[in-house]
Specification:
Layout (H helix, E strand, L loop, with lengths): L1 E8 L2 E8 L2 E7 L13 E3 L4 H14 L17 H10 L8 E2 H11 L7 H9 L12 E2 L12 H10 L19
Length: 181
């Protein structure tokens, strides 16, 4: 059984999902892959301790603090490859960005491979079921391209700006010029 709870945030409504008192989902309303790892058996239960902890974490994050992930029991459901990518995402410091290629290089080293596809990494990043908390918004394309975000590029920019990242240094998708946000 999966339990759901909503959290109102500056980037929109976030649906939180838990299973066995562990956080398995945090999806921004309208997110591309919303609920792809949650089965149909769900029940609203906003009073679970994991939801209280997650709401506190999100309150701290949106108030400008840098909450620690160790405060939450995360259990994203994915393949071993995706889980490895999400583990790397959790290590990206607040207010910093990394490229898909950099993550691919880390994966190649961890798996003793000569190289790893940045596109495969992009697929794993895009299917992150615990948005914001597992900070997939901190991943950018090569040469500073602000590429896809399942919650929408506008939300990715908003989150990066919230963390103090100068987004005017990045190329906006499909525009071919520097952003002036």
């Amino acid at each position: 059984m999966f339990y759901l709870c909503n959290y109102s945030s500056p980037v929109g409504l976030i649906t939180l999902a838990s299973q066995q008192n562990k956080l398995v989902g945090a999806c921004i309303e309208g997110e591309k892959y919303f609920g792809h790892t949650i089965n149909k058996q769900t029940e609203e239960n906003p009073n679970l301790s994991i939801f209280n902890s997650t709401k506190k974490w999100l309150d701290d994050y949106f108030s400008g603090k840098k909450p620690n992930l160790s405060q939450l029991e995360l259990a994203p459901n994915g393949t071993p490859f995706r889980s490895l990518v999400w583990e790397i995402l959790c290590k990206i410091p607040y207010g910093q960005v990394i490229t898909y290629g950099d993550i691919a290089k880390q994966i190649a080293i961890k798996t003793n491979k000569a190289n790893m596809s940045s596109q495969a990494v992009g697929g794993a990043v895009g299917h992150n079921p615990i948005s914001i908390i597992i900070p997939c918004h901190r991943v950018i394309g090569a040469n500073g391209n602000l590429t896809g975000y399942a919650g929408g590029i506008d939300k990715k920019i908003q989150l990066l700006q919230h963390e103090g990242v100068d987004t005017t240094l990045f190329f906006m998708p499909k525009q071919g010029h520097l952003s002036t946000i």
